[in-house]
Amino acid sequence: MTEGRRRIAYVLPIYDEEGNIPLLYERLRSATDGLRDRYDLEFVFVDDGSRDRSLELLRGLRAQDPRVSVYALARNYGHQIAVTAGLDVADADAVIVMDSDLQDPPEVSLELIARWEDGVDVAYAQRRTRDDGLFKRTTAHGFYWLLSRLSNVDIPRDTGDFRLMDRRVVDELRRHPERNRFIRGLVASIGFRQEAVLFDRDARHAGETGYPLRKMLKLAGDGIFGFSTAPLKLISRVGGAMAALAFLWTIYLVVARLVNPESVIEGWTYLAAGMFLLGGIQMLMLGVVGSYLGRIYVEVQRRPLYAFSVADAGPPRGA
């Protein structure tokens, strides 16, 4: 590293990406060649417990390029924790978070850097188009629509974690230690000057997505429950509405009994149906409350977010 020059670190979470790593590195190296005269660069790869040859390939890159740092988590902690680990170890004036499946084009990072040079603290890549299936596009659109209606924070639509953050923003982000992490929401809540850079998102180059439906639903839950109290408020509103309906129904039954007793059906059918309906609604609402209580329980434990099994960084050994 050159004394006095500013540093930019790329944080790249890796999970079973052996089919993408060689091309990812080549495109990243090619895209950043023009920056070497102005900045010191570091490529921070965080292996999130990959089951294939990803870690082996990353160590090979480390051996041939001193700018590459490789950190291997002790197990698969998930994408958001892997990104957090990379942010914690990256020592730079600006940090760029980018997925490793080549859906986030490395060339777009140059536009993010240009915005940073103009004084922007967070330059986030916003998808203009996305080469995904109909189901993925539909669910993503629905999620961002719902999040915009419920969230207490203005989280930009059609954005992932592909963004550049100034050192000050990264330091602030480190002060948010919650385990159920939704990083794009945390960054939006921090503030500072943030601007979008539009780009066309490519299709995954190789391998399978690390976000199947189960993980997508969990991430959506982290975004909604982590940045909105609307589900809790919904409980009281639904409860109030049900109480009002029950009151009106009681008045109707009393009036019907007094005015026209023959119209009232004897038996327990309506009573049993009403009890089951109210019981189901109560259980549903208790489930929402339980989601929040579960998060509180996890947060107060204050366990470490991750553990490294390998931390190969700095100048190559023996150099």
TrEMBL record:
Q: Describe the location of the Glycosyltransferase 2-like domain by residue ranges.
A: 11-173
Q: What is its main location?
A: membrane
Q: Which residues cross the membrane?
A: 234-255, 267-293
Membrane topology of this protein: Multi-pass membrane protein
CDD domains for the chain:
DPM1_like_bac
GO CC terms? plasma membrane
Q: Which InterPro entries does the UniProt record give?
A: Glyco_trans_2-like (IPR001173), Glycosyltransferase_2 (IPR050256), Nucleotide-diphossugar_trans (IPR029044)
Q: Which Pfam families match?
A: Glycos_transf_2
Which controlled-vocabulary keywords does the entry list?
Answer: Glycosyltransferase, Membrane, Transferase, Transmembrane, Transmembrane helix
Does this entry carry the keyword Protein biosynthesis? no
Record-given protein name? Glycosyltransferase family 2 protein
